[in-house]
Amino acid sequence: MIFRQLFDSVSGTYTYLLASRPGGEALIIDPVLEKVDRYVQLINELDLRLIKAVDTHLHADHITGLGALRDRTHCVTVMGEHSKVDVVSMRLTEGDKLAIEGVSLDVLYTPGHTDDSYSFLMRDRVFTGDTLLIRGTGRTDFQNGDARAQYDSIFNKLLRLPEETMVFPAHDYKGETVSTIGEEKRFNPRLQVKSVDEYVDLMGKLNLPNPKMMDVAVPANMRVGFAQEEIARRGWAMSAAEAQALIGRPDVTFVDLRERTERQKHGVIPGSLHAPYPDLIANVKPGGMLHELAAATGRRIVFYCAFGERSAMAVQAAQDAGLTAACHVQGGLDAWKRAQGPVLH
Ligand SMILES: [Fe+2]
Description:
Blueprint (H helix, E strand, L loop, with lengths): L1 E7 L4 E7 L5 E5 L6 H10 L3 E6 L11 H8 L2 E5 L9 E3 L4 E4 L2 E7 L8 E5 L2 E5 L2 E2 L2 E2 L9 H10 L9 E4 L9 E2 H7 L8 H9 L9 H9 L5 H6 L3 E2 L1 H5 L7 E5 L3 H7 L6 E2 L5 H5 L4 H9 L2 E5 L4 H12 L6 E3 L2 H7 L7
Parallel strand pairs: 3-4, 4-5, 5-6, 10-13, 15-19, 16-17, 16-18, 18-19
Antiparallel strand pairs: 1-2, 2-3, 7-8, 8-9, 9-10, 11-12, 13-14
The protein binds fe (ii) ion.
């Protein structure tokens, strides 16, 4: 198992890099824009392939590295379904798994610091974002923060994990790197309260100044979408309505880039082929499944995914590999459903 805790000293942010083995798929949690070069270098040095970049919540104190990592590595961007970010490749909710090859994290919805705060549990450790910090908790006085919800997230979800579970937060300002659930239960001063009202009262009296970066970081972090407009400008996109008219046509193949779990949960476009996004490059190059399919049948490949992010990147890769008829459904299955497209469960 590869596990790295990386630090941005300007914002006091911890970023985590996870992979199950060298040469394997990697996942990064809470990357910081200014550190993207360093992450990419480390990923190359460790011979990893970055598959997913996830933010625990919409950060107010630094600009996320999600968009830059996606542009550099073509990874999938991930956030919770409550996030107000414009568009990410994949949205998760409580009970989902955040998975790459050999690594699977349980998704816990832990609102309170913000209303889009999530924690990720991996067997012996939990990534708590700004919900539970080491000897502290994330402030609840902006971004739809709610001390009552945070109390519930901490006391009724996180503190119910086994006491030896390691706690890896998104921030620390004193140089602490890791704690445990048991330790925080006993020694976190904010958790020594007798009731939710006492906690709400305590959080209401903190009087913290706003983060220095807030006015820059929040608007920047709301816009991390891939330039789907640019793909459309090149003529490689179709609207959900246009795509629906092609259903059942013998000269068109719809290709679903999502994961098996997303297909089960949200359904599929009838008659579509499944070719998961992490295998895309292998599939579109000469000799690859999709390349040969297009060559042998002359069919036009129409990619789709959840929100059009993965499929927009796939079109670019397919075009680069010589599949000049490839295009994608702009806005993905989300737009397809809003346009009343048929979905198979
Ligand atoms: Fe935060």
